Amino acid sequence: MSLLADLLSPLFDRRYASAETRDNRPMRDLAHDLLTSRGEVSGMALARQILDRYASMEDENKRTFLEYLGRELDLDPDAVQVALETYRGDPSRRNYVTLMSASEPPRQELFRRLNQVPGATGKLVAMRADLIRFADGDPALARVESDLKHLFKSWFNRGFLVLRPMNWESPAHILEKITRYEAVHAIHSWEDLRRRLQPEDRRCFGFFHPVMPDEPLIFVQVALTKGIPGSIQGLLAEERENLPVGEADTAVFYSISNCQAGLAGISFGNSLIKQVVEDLSRDLPQLKTFVTLSPIPGLMAWMRSVGLESHMSNPETLGPLAGHYLLNAKDKSGRPLDPVARFHLNNGALVHAIHAKGDLSPNGIAQSGGAMVNYLYDLKRISRNHEDFANNKKVVAAKDVQNLARTPLPETQDSPADAGT
Amino acid sequence: MSLLADLLSPLFDRRYASAETRDNRPMRDLAHDLLTSRGEVSGMALARQILDRYASMEDENKRTFLEYLGRELDLDPDAVQVALETYRGDPSRRNYVTLMSASEPPRQELFRRLNQVPGATGKLVAMRADLIRFADGDPALARVESDLKHLFKSWFNRGFLVLRPMNWESPAHILEKITRYEAVHAIHSWEDLRRRLQPEDRRCFGFFHPVMPDEPLIFVQVALTKGIPGSIQGLLAEERENLPVGEADTAVFYSISNCQAGLAGISFGNSLIKQVVEDLSRDLPQLKTFVTLSPIPGLMAWMRSVGLESHMSNPETLGPLAGHYLLNAKDKSGRPLDPVARFHLNNGALVHAIHAKGDLSPNGIAQSGGAMVNYLYDLKRISRNHEDFANNKKVVAAKDVQNLARTPLPETQDSPADAGT
Amino acid sequence: MSLLADLLSPLFDRRYASAETRDNRPMRDLAHDLLTSRGEVSGMALARQILDRYASMEDENKRTFLEYLGRELDLDPDAVQVALETYRGDPSRRNYVTLMSASEPPRQELFRRLNQVPGATGKLVAMRADLIRFADGDPALARVESDLKHLFKSWFNRGFLVLRPMNWESPAHILEKITRYEAVHAIHSWEDLRRRLQPEDRRCFGFFHPVMPDEPLIFVQVALTKGIPGSIQGLLAEERENLPVGEADTAVFYSISNCQAGLAGISFGNSLIKQVVEDLSRDLPQLKTFVTLSPIPGLMAWMRSVGLESHMSNPETLGPLAGHYLLNAKDKSGRPLDPVARFHLNNGALVHAIHAKGDLSPNGIAQSGGAMVNYLYDLKRISRNHEDFANNKKVVAAKDVQNLARTPLPETQDSPADAGT
Amino acid sequence: MSLLADLLSPLFDRRYASAETRDNRPMRDLAHDLLTSRGEVSGMALARQILDRYASMEDENKRTFLEYLGRELDLDPDAVQVALETYRGDPSRRNYVTLMSASEPPRQELFRRLNQVPGATGKLVAMRADLIRFADGDPALARVESDLKHLFKSWFNRGFLVLRPMNWESPAHILEKITRYEAVHAIHSWEDLRRRLQPEDRRCFGFFHPVMPDEPLIFVQVALTKGIPGSIQGLLAEERENLPVGEADTAVFYSISNCQAGLAGISFGNSLIKQVVEDLSRDLPQLKTFVTLSPIPGLMAWMRSVGLESHMSNPETLGPLAGHYLLNAKDKSGRPLDPVARFHLNNGALVHAIHAKGDLSPNGIAQSGGAMVNYLYDLKRISRNHEDFANNKKVVAAKDVQNLARTPLPETQDSPADAGT
Lengths: 421, 421, 421, 421
Fold this sequence. Notes:
19 helices; 421 residues; Butyryl-CoA Dehydrogenase, subunit A, domain 3; Aminopeptidase; 8 strands; globular; 3 domains; homotetramer; three-stranded antiparallel sheet; five-stranded mixed sheet; alpha+beta
């Protein structure tokens, strides 16, 4: 990472330490200037001031600035209407450009002009994280947030992302972020981190953007194993023996974490998993199976909702109930209730196996009674699975899981809730 | 460059040499698939096929595909109208997103999905170059071209560009492109190129985009000199002696060339010059003056248009006429007729000096009777100059040039044409 | 580092994982083969086997192999004698080469041939560490050890070393080694390490050799301060506030650690300090003073040896006694008793100031009663100081320290020992 | 290369531009100082002055300095004698070190101290090139030359060399050197160079030393072909079609060039070929055959020497004569007369095929009547071949070549010369 940073940073460095005089006018004046012709030439100084001042503000002042973006740099529907009518009359290039321009609120150009200074992209991502916090119930802020999302879909397009392995030779400040961002199975110390990164049967890969070289966008942790594991505690045991890579036949994706709150809703996981599967297949042809070891975060909540609390700590019935939940419990749109299941099924994976005692940590017990699940990525079937799921909402599962899910549900204490079944 | 390429290419390499089976269906079927849910999972293979097949097509087939984009993946004005009305009724986030989505033709999403494969960005840039060739008189193609321009303004935002020096230690395949793209003073051989790049009093800088690491977007050639030069032949003389860098007080921008036809209309020159001025100022604090040695490409054409042909080879009157042309000859919008003048004045430079015998090459004689001009970049005055120019169309010039321009025009053979005066 | 490793490792990688068949003959047979013509062509496989087998041996077997080197691949004095006489008769190139060759034991060629495999240099350094452990009292092993020292003086010549800064962006596996090798003020945790490396007023630099890119040879830790500090606890306090670099006027070398036992006796410290002084001077011209904050490791031992134990915990008399010890206590050759003093004085530094309460850690109290000393590196005087010291054994010291050292010694309990006074 | 240079050059840069005052004393005074204690501390300035002044000297002054090294910093045989006797009496470490030290002339320590400045290694290599020019008939200079050779065997040990591919993406200043150093089949222009480097069925690899990153030590050019070629003109034809790499089964080493006159006698070719064979085998497993297409530089000279001039332009008899020459014509020590044959046979290759019309260039006709030869590197047999050759002087050849060589020699015009037969 830091090499990439080095290479790109000729642009980015202390270059401008050269004292630009601070411009104390209100933020909106600076933003206004940046959008005028002055911004074309002196834009770098203006952009830096706006972003730096914003970054150091309290929430209240941030909100004021964001509301300015939401209300004063908003879309002008009248202008859209006029441009649309002109365009209907003559769909010339000129009229098309006018319409496109009218259809874009002026703050989009502001964002693009802000982005000329080093580090700006990261600061705009942080701005969207603020907007997500603030936007609730305020449509103007929500529109600004939506504009940034649209922009980021373009800027963080798959073609611009760089996949980087992370290991014990990676820069400490990046590894620190792995620890901080790990969202599934917490990393408690540098020693804990080392156990995830240093052994040759452990891998970690992340997506980075060239202008945010020190910030992973998403990363996945992989264990190379012999056979498909069913217990996260077994997989991460301190005293376990490392497996010589040559003996591994399976790659287990046991944790995948998004890192940037400001990039919420921009999906990297699908691409990341596929890229890592391709890379590992090429580098380690002995790997035949690509599988997850995943939590079932909604299982206990669902059991409560259908009156099955009493079965929550019964390993006998947990397997069948988990199968039932994953295959049959659906939301209103007909898709699985469980968010992790939705993610992997939509990627084209299938439900491969259920492990009643997969995660006996307090958190694992709390959310799923300890059950975990393997989703299998079978490259030959991914595309068909995905389409079946996307078009027909079909949940593909292995025979054993189908059988589990067919086990009759135990009687519930209350009337059987039909929520989500 | 090639290091950057190396770093980024983990993504990009022979990775997919793995035989994807060729899909022989019509291009529009592939494009359609890429836009549906199938595209979310199998998009990489589809995108590669579309881009590779497009690249190998004859113009006629290319045009067919581009017309498909222009007509079948076009904006739907009815949908915009409906969404606009809904939004006017309730400007909620959801309605806003619907409107934004309706205001964007579906080909934009196609472009974003195409961009997931290595090399795609360069291929889309080439596609726009085709569109520019084809679009004339065909509004549908012109709209597609305009969409790509809009997209590229976002993707090639200043914040994503990397400034790289180029010199005799740069990769041969990059240097070859410098030779090919040089648009102002042609480079005739590797020896010629070496004279521009190897001496320590010569510099060259270009902007690159991380995903097109072997393709300069724009580059500028700089000579470090003692005093401001007035002759390009003197500057590039084979037998000249190199100046020890410590003795240089002036940096002369003597050539600036855009490289990518498909990025026409996306301005990099202003940023490039300013960046290079900043970098050189920091690295070589002995440099006090930043100036161009520029052609006056429209001078002879203007003299013909105003009936002054007879003065074209008279060095006595050429200076005053050039001054007059640069300061007083305006287009309908009131801006200078000369495109190079417009560029530098809009960047905030001023007209510093005119040299009647600046470029005695056949081309120099043909376009300007041999005259050249220095535009001066005075960092302290750039912002004010630019605003004067942008807002008031004021052309800032040194005293001497103002005096030159005040010299009475010689009588013309015909009646004095007022075109552009 | 790991970039350097990457670049160099095209040579070094899993390349030879390709199964070389294990050769189970005795080590001496392999070594013999490597020295014959077979070694010229199949040397790589032989070298790898020898080094790998050696590395995995118990001490007893290692010693057997090293004794073989010491006794059977030893210098042949008769051959030297014959060659010397021939050379005296006719000092031709041929006779010179014969003499040079006879004067070198055959194990030297063995070492050079062993060094052709990736990682060999590091393994030979480890072999010398073994020899240092074993050699005591065994002249044959001592001669082998001395041969390696001679070889390493050539291989680790200053011109081949690379100075690299280390900071919080350095690879974790390198940082780990910093923690392990720190010999002066122990680093207790990653948080402790971070405090030494991450703040902008802290720097760390090490020498590396290109073929051992993951192994620092020596490193120095530097604090940037305002004024010269007198307390290591103050310098390293957890709660201290970072100093903005622009306000620093002093660079304090507060810890310098050699890392490789097998490179004992090959001096890197002098070059390292000078290089870092030059680099910091250039990058941070505001730095005016380069100084150490050093322990006085021999002070308490000396006080005991001269019967001054009773003054060991008296801060009043500790300063003068430390001054006396540093300036006047000499070994038989007339150089200072204190090894740290010898090192810095020989580098051309001078004794600048003494701090009675400089290091109140248990270790600091134990070795010097808590006293520390600043050695000043004054670039203008280094050369003269060094020569005065090297040629005349003169210890240069600041006025205040000279005065301290002139304070009459307190009476000793016993008769005044003259050891080292 | 230039990346490597970048990484290493933090050490090496303009760092010392800082004006060191020029020391105008005689070179020998500077050298003397560098060897004394002053050299330990101020060595860098002294070393730079000596090397810079030497580099700018005329031959006469260079020779004076080299004679100083040869005569005044020479080995002292008396000191060796004394040390040898002491050592015989007691082979202690101390006495051993004294003997080793006496056996090394003081100029060796001078060379090591000179090597502390950036670029020194390259300058010392150039100094040996001077010595090779000057040494003829002057034993003192010859001894200095031999000392540098000994030193370079240590410094340019295989373990310190870096193999780098060179291609059309390599830095121009490196490619320029390829053109200049190519010793076998001259490269006439950049276009010619491009034909050797750019096509995917052409490769080039060189060894570099980390401190001379811009200077190849040796390089080899490789063509990937289908079958074994017999004509260099065919191989290098301008109009030839590139072979898709996937179809290649053979790698042809058609040119190998040493680059540094000052490294004469230090063998890199054997290691280079083996390394490239290993790398290509791994990266392109479809390659089954590794073979040279080599000149027979001594053929015509030999034919003249044995009175066979009249057959020099007869393609019928050229093949058998070439076979006879390669297999049977020996020097006094019993090894093949032909130097290229000696090189490849000593590497363990075998004589595979002879092509009477292999090189029809003027040079090819002049030295071998147009004949060329393939030497085959069969990894499984290399070691045995080499030993047969090294120990028994056996020339291994394919059946066909053996048969050719058995063809009776035509009658010579004179009596059959026995020179070399």
